[in-house]
Amino acid sequence: MPAESVRRAPLDVVIVGAGAAGIGCAVVLRAVGAQRLAVLERGRVGQSFEQWPEGMRFITPSFTSNQFGSLDLNAVAIQTSPAFTLRSEHPTGTQYAGYLRGVAKHFGVRVRRGIDVQSVTRRHNGPGFVLHTTRGIYRTRMLVWAAGEFQHPRTNVFPGADLCTHTSHVRSWQDVAGDPVYIIGGSESGIDAATHLATAGRHVVVLDARAPWTDSSSDPSLVLSPFTLDRLHNARGTGRVELFGGASVTRVVQDGEGFRITTTRGESFLSDHPPLLATGFLSSATGVADHFAWTDEGTALLTADDESTTTPGLFLVGPSVRHERVILCFIYKFRQRFAVVARAIGTRLGLDLAPLEEYRRAQMFLDDLSCCGVECQC
């Protein structure tokens, strides 16, 4: 029987993606009693983390402090701690994927693997959605999109960007050719690449218009983390890292056997190998873009419950969640919205929401964003 012809009984909730957001949200939904729930994943639980370049680690530190009522910054579920499980303060992607699989097993989250969602449509005969997948059709009353961002690198950023290699496509820094190595983008992934390459004895040139290494904002979503700044300081001490800020790259063209990089300031750099692109990622919601309204900055518009403003029943969780100037891109930020989504879904399903109070006590139930955006004074 063709996979597309397989039909199943309708579900109450389908979560697409079994990464940090998908597993974390599934745990909360199970806590409020969601039974007709499925998590669909094209690969393995936490697979995007396993695809990180070798040596890349979490910039947010893990520390076991559950006994004092403070959750590990990298935990996605209450009463868990990657620091305790992994014995690592800054886990690798592979380590963290192992933690996510442990969480899924401990909380009884069943993940249906090997399922790639090909399209999502609204049901014609009632509320809900029809998901066309490589394993047949799924029908669900509500849909939680937790597809992650790592598989959506931002590459169409200037003419000639296709001649570059996005950092998400690098498996090992030893595989990167060139000396010097030119990196376009100086945020976390760009500086992470620069420090690894400099440690390996390579000369590195980083180009970034915003020059985040000089930014003094206290919003960790906008500036380099202390973990990264420390490594950058050490790498610059070797004399092998040059930083160029204040000008955008306008194009990359092939020049003989090399690649010519030009900027808005008229600077010109010649790289003997393809430059690295550290330009970030697109929203995971691009996979269902027609079901969201979008801001001019390319973020999905959401209600106070992280629901699509144009498609009722479709929720977004994970690093793509934005509310005006509030950026919820780190795990310790976006995990605070799982309970908000669970409350909205649980209310519609008539579930017992009392367990969510434990999430509020654990600072994993942020439904008042007025507290966000406060700048540090010193």
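The above is record 1. Record 2 follows with the same two-line structure.
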Amino acid sequence: MVISAAMIKQLREATGAGVLDCRKALETCEGDAEKAKAWLKDKGLAAAAKKSDRVAADGLVGSYIHHNNRIAVLVEVNCETDFVARTEGFKKLTQEIAKHIAMANPQYIKPEDVAASVLEEAKQGFQAEALAAGKSGAEVDEAVEQKLGKFYQETCLVKQPYVLNEKVTIGEMITQGITDLKENIVVRRFVRYELGA
């Protein structure tokens, strides 16, 4: 199949991928734009996964003060070089994360950060709820897993849907940032202040 410039342009606009990557994706997927998008996404995720072990010791401290001056956030987002830290893409990502933290109030960065005692207490509560609802055996385990997933989504930054676009999680935004900027990106820590809280 002949891959036209218009097809490449359309895929580029939809994905933000480079011209050569778009051509390769369309050739691989025999001109199917939807399959090509999925192919590019998988390629980006694979590239991001390779970078996740690299040391991210540079970066920025981003800040956000809500318009009513009652909520403020400081967040440290790390990357590998000061060159990337100065790019508009990295600054924008840091700002979006800070704004999200102000609005969504996560308690942890990732599920691994949840203390074992907190996790155990939550699991026991979910188990008691499932038993009270008349579930037994495997149904209880399944209910606990579902509730645990929701618990992580509510309390862990990387699992939360972005407040300004709920189709994407903060973790997916960071992965996209890794793909776009070609460096590992890590949220190191954050602090959220709320007046009177």
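The first strand starts at residue 58 and ends at 65.
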